[in-house]
Amino acid sequence: MRRAETIDLNTINxxxxxxxxxxxxxxxxxxxxxxxxxxxxxxxxxxxxxEKVGGKTTSRTLGLVALIPLATARHxxxxxxxxxxNDTNVPTSAPLFSPDARIWEVMPxxxxxxxxxxxxxxxxxxxxxxxxxxxxxxxxLRKVRxxxxxxxxxxxxxxxxxxxxxxxxxxxxxxxxxxxxDHGLRDPGCNPCRGLRKKQRSKRGQLLxxxxxxxxxxxxxxLHDAMPNACDAVRLLLLTGARRSEILSLEWDRIIGPRxxxxxxxxxxxxxxxxxxxxxxxxxxxxxxxxxxxFPAARMDGPMxxxxxxxxMIRKKAQLGTLRVHDLRHHFASVGVSNGIxxxxxxxxxxxxxxDSTLGYAHLPTAALTKSATRISGRLDRSLRGQHSxxxxxxxxxxxxxxxxxxxAMEAAHG
Length: 415
Hints:
Blueprint: E1 4-7, E2 24-29, E3 35-40, E4 45-53, E5 56-64, H1 70-79, H2 103-118, H3 121-139, H4 149-162, H5 166-182, H6 210-223, H7 228-240, H8 244-248, E6 255-256, E7 259-262, E8 270-273, H9 276-288, H10 308-317, H11 327-338, H12 343-350, H13 355-359, H14 366-387, H15 391-413
Parallel strand pairs: 1-2
Antiparallel strand pairs: 2-3, 3-4, 4-5, 6-7, 7-8
Helix pairs in contact: 1-2, 2-3, 3-5, 6-7, 7-11, 11-12, 14-15
């Protein structure tokens, strides 16, 4: 076969077509204009669609061949002309769909709506990936109006069994159903995703033992000469509780005294507060690093993007087992809460928008809860003793306070 050709893709098995010895190979579909099968020497087999964005023709990946059938890929391409990307002149009030519209028909319009500025670019990418990987292959041919909660629940279980992106997939499908309600494809208030958890409430992360933190810090010192950028980034993650993306993309102009003011983050604009050790690391780097970014990329103009390989070496050197980089953020939060810092303050340090997110990180030790319960009972006792002078009332108050303290401690011990 030639390097690029046009055939009916239905006449071949995309999973068995020979891969190119190097680079990539494109096979265009003669039946669906703009659809191509892209084969790469690395083994990747993906569907690609050509589309016009801002007057320029670009290529966009639809998803893996193994996950998206050819029929679904053709449907996805056929739906693209209905609403060009970033076309803000199309009236959203116009009837776009028939009453029997299927999920593959509505999804491009829903995603295009978010691309006009409603969602952050990173959110758009994640939702598009979730749609093409988990929603369209399994539910794409279903009529929007026919999707039932039981079916969504089974789909969620299937996705959760093979992917960690189930939360994003469920959020995307839920948003699509709300979009369908707005366009008269479903009755108001009948979202089939309602009641399914998008976010697991569980004990995430851990309070690391002191010995573990010491081994980590020692390993960073020993590996610093070999990979100074990665070691300094890990130090700042541990000292600030910031997200990996926030530290790796940090710019010098954003650092103002004891804080780093981020114009954008996962939850929007926020401040990273820098303690003395963190400022010392940054001051040392400022003397050696030139350019816009605190952690510049090695071979391109921009910030560091990944830390995985370096973290694997650090973890092995410090004997950290399966500890994740994100667990450093959990540890930061747990240390704060365990030492009596108010949850809302911890949430502000972490950049959370609501207290529920902070509760996912706060694992209070039983000893801390018991101590807090004792303090509460003591204050209750002093308060009530000032109002009632008789001995019987004081004894009753003490017994009540003791029960409160005991119950709280028992609840902490059991969960």
